Input
Amino acid sequence: MTDPTRTYDPRPPHPVPDATPDLSSRNPDWWRQAVVYQVYPRSFADADGDGLGDLRGITRRLTHLATLGVDALWLSPFYPSELADGGYDVADPRDVDPRLGTLDDFDAMVREAHRLGLKVIVDIVPNHTSHQHVWFQEALRAGPGSAARDRYVFRDGRGERGELPPTDWQSVFGGSAWQRVPDGQWYLHLFAAEQPDLNWGHQDVRDDYRTTLRFWSDRGVDGFRIDVAHALAKDLSEPLRDLGSPERSREYTLGEFPPGTHPFYDRDEVHEIYRDWRKILDAYSPPRTAVAEAWVPGARRALYARPDELGQAFNFEYLQAAWDAEELRQVITESLETAHAAGASATWVLSNHDVIRHASRLMLPPGTDDNAWLLSGGHAPAVDPDAGLRRARAATLLMLALPGSAYVYQGEELGLPEVADLPTEVLQDPIWEQTGHVRKGRDGCRVPLPWTTTGPSYGFGPGGAWLPQPPSFAEYAVEAQDGVEGSTLELYRTALKLRRKLLDGETLTWAEQTPAGVLQFERGDGWRCVANLSPDPVDLPAGELLLTSAPLHNGRLGPDTTAWLTR
Output
């Protein structure tokens, strides 16, 4: 009988390398076509049994990433935080949350990652701090007009007694972006009230983040993911501008403003900050990498990816594209052109800690309101998990065949679906409360990973988990899929091993004639990818079949299936 208290740590199915020859200091451009695995630390692995994932848990599971075949891991925030926003409310950007470990634990994790040939990327959160940060506490004590308050964005309110917010700006999480403090002033928070925005016009702020970049680079970190990279620079000249409607505070309304002129998103001045950062990152050997989270249109996004700035930027058009061949072909073409124009490589992502997992999302009918679906517990409309997994596997093989870097979110290699039916009493995402229980939030993609088929948290840790896992997670567990031919885990392992051998150049050539609903392109040295998004089986081109996301139908490529071939 299986011991439900033990953790699963199988011998790797493939030898674990002591070093990865292509991802060493001899190749400073390793990031251009890397596969990066995102770890959400609190949900990856729990070593001490408190129900919260931690750094020692990550270290113990690094062989999973090495045998999976990824090139790097990206850690979402692990800094001291009260978790008002899942760790993105940072109280100290140069320390480790004691619930997750210590700096010594971090150093041990980096050493083990490097021994296994894995690069390490960490999240930097420069737009805001936690309200528990020493600077913000100092600002509250110092009072209006103080130098301490100038590190943040404090303003007097409007109205006869200053009882109204300074502007009509809205928080991403809902409601006003301004919070009043006891002395009557208001401070800006584009996200949760516990996340006051920094004033990037202040020299102390700029100097402190230079220190942070050096701190982690000196500890062996290989790169940085920049949270809300487009929001640092703000037009704080008086009088502050109203936007006229709550909707104009959202990223997707940037088109209503001349490029670079929105009061607090994607301002031209933000690029001065990143040019300064690049000088710091390039002072290391090899240079440290960086990728921007910038929710801006493609042409503007390319600016963040320029060689003298961050080098890469996440491609959210691809994530948001429907499962439609023509739309995907257009997005892929435009993304490659945009990246090439910037001198960068493209980025591709299907899931992350902020969106519905793609094994569920790709099955939602066009026009479905994601939030309404979550509020229904995933029942309206119902999603067929088998069909969702089939489509997710096809989407993965398509993504991994594209030129550029692929970012994989933890658990997608297991085919995990969204946990849409989390009871409201367990929700942790501040969106739920800040919107008055109108938006359910992002907890469904953050449920801790299953490693074993039994146990109080399916091997996540010796005890329970901070978010409840559904019983169905047992069938998705690493233990259930390890070494099982045709499993999603083995599909990822095989695809990533093949991908390393097949990579050649950063371009693709579309096939001139393909059936409706089919995507077909060729990479260097005759590597072909064919993705059938149509409802009918299609014939494959001539060539040696390397891998398919699902079995063929009488020698033909079935619906929602992707194949790799060589000529």
Q: What stands out?
A: Residues 1-25 have pLDDT under 50 and may be disordered. The radius of gyration is 23 Å. The longest strand covers residues 119-124.
